[in-house]
Amino acid sequence: STESSTDSSTPTSTTTTTPTTTTTTTTTTTTTTTTTTKKACFSMDETVTMVDGSSRFLRDIQPGDQIWTMSYDGTQVYLSEAMMIPHMEPNLTVLFYTVETMTGHRLSLSAQHYIRVQHFDYLPAEQLTVNHSLYVLLKDGTIQSTRIRIINQEWKTGVYNLITLDGSLLVNGIAASSYVNNGFGPHHLNHRIFTPIRLGYHLSKYFKFLQNAYSLNEHGKTWIVHTFLFYCNILVFIDQVFVPVLVIQLSCCSLTGATRFMIGKHEKSTALTFLRYFEETAK
């Protein structure tokens, strides 16, 4: 019989392997895109001309930036100040009207956004035809009116609105308004409505507590718009409760002429005008 033995002088090596577990964590970001045909102002890919002549995307403009706009008579350009960004939604898909002129200028804006038209003041984009002429900024810095060559409708993602102190701006070199048609008045009425907002903006340069009111919040909205909407609702309460009661009282006094006057004015009151505009802007 043969016996196997291990020489005690020979060292025995034992290797222990510890398995390593690697954990990989994957984070998935979901972006929700909304499609709408509502009033949405400009496409975020449009540009404005800065004080030094350079171009900058609308989405990169901040309150206080100096940008070029056109004088009302359409003869020259001058600087205006970006006052507020009331609306910015990068994931909102909107039907835009893309207008191209004979000079090659192109601009995408929503159906109800106002644009400056020769002989017609400001018109909503959906009312434009190839028979209209727009005001464009040429390379030599002069303004020229030029006919529209073509108008297309196209869906684009990302919307942006910029309001200047003058209520107008040059976007992609085309004269346009800062405002949209909300069904109660033209460009100039919109501009008058924003008079308290402009006053507050000027005051914000001297009072720090007002400065954040003109900056975008995490939802891409401007706080001052929502605050103003709150006060507009107070005005509407007065308009819809106090004024009708007063009208009834006047009716009881047989002041039929005054009653008809107040009823006629009631539907076009300033309070309702404020509410319609800011409810649309703050959506």
From TrEMBL:
Q: Which residues are in the Hint domain?
A: 39-138
Q: Which PANTHER family would you find in this protein's record?
A: HEDGEHOG, PROTEIN HEDGEHOG
In this entry, which stretches build a coiled coil?
none
Q: Where is this region: Disordered?
A: 1-30
Q: Which InterPro entries does this entry report, sorted A to Z? A: Hedgehog_Hint, Hedgehog_Signaling, Hint_dom_N, Hint_dom_sf
GO biological process terms, alphabetically, are:
protein autoprocessing
What is the recorded name of this protein?
A: Hint domain-containing protein
Q: Which SMART domains match?
A: HintN
Read off the Pfam families from this record: Hint
The source's domain of life comes to: Eukaryota
